[in-house]
Amino acid sequence: MAAALSALPRAASRLAPCGRRPNLRALCAAAAAGEASKSKRRLVLYTKPGCCLCDGLKEKLHAASLLAGTPYSLASLELQERDITTNPEWERLYQYEIPVLAKVLPDGTEEILPRLSPRLSVELIQKKICSVFDQ
Can the keyword Transport be found in this entry's annotation (predicted)? Predict the structure, then answer.
């Protein structure tokens, strides 16, 4: 982040009208907001005990969050697991669909994501999850 902030004055001077100094406070606030929005990346995994597909996806999501050396970092990803057997509504909705992965939107609602194939590599899962948050 320090490198990004050091580049702000140069980038802002190109955007500011002639003879005016750029508003660095506004630029820093915008940079911090961008950083904060990345830190609030949340997913919900609907699962149940004994589900081998769920266990496989959990392992791959965990491995993808630890994967380094790629441009698709999931270090700030927050994954919440929900056991559908603890809530009759979840069980009714997802009993034949698990594992179900949902993105938590800024307003708290959830957007169900397309099913990830159990054959996908950890790297591809990392890339797909990252693309969900970059939209």
Answer: yes
- As to burial, measured by CB atoms within 10 angstroms (0-12 exposed, 13-18 middle, 19+ buried), residue 135 is exposed
At residue 17, the pLDDT reads: 45
- Residues 127/130/131/134 CA torsion (nearest 10 deg): -150
Count Cα neighbours of 90 within 13 Å in the Cβ-side half-sphere.
19
The predicted-structure confidence for 46-70, as pLDDT tens digits, reads as follows 999 999 999 999 999 999 888 876 7
- 53 and 102 belong to one structural domain: yes
Q: Which two tokens stand for residue 63?
A: 């491995």
Residues 51 and 115 in one domain: yes
Do 27 and 47 reside in the same domain of the chain? no
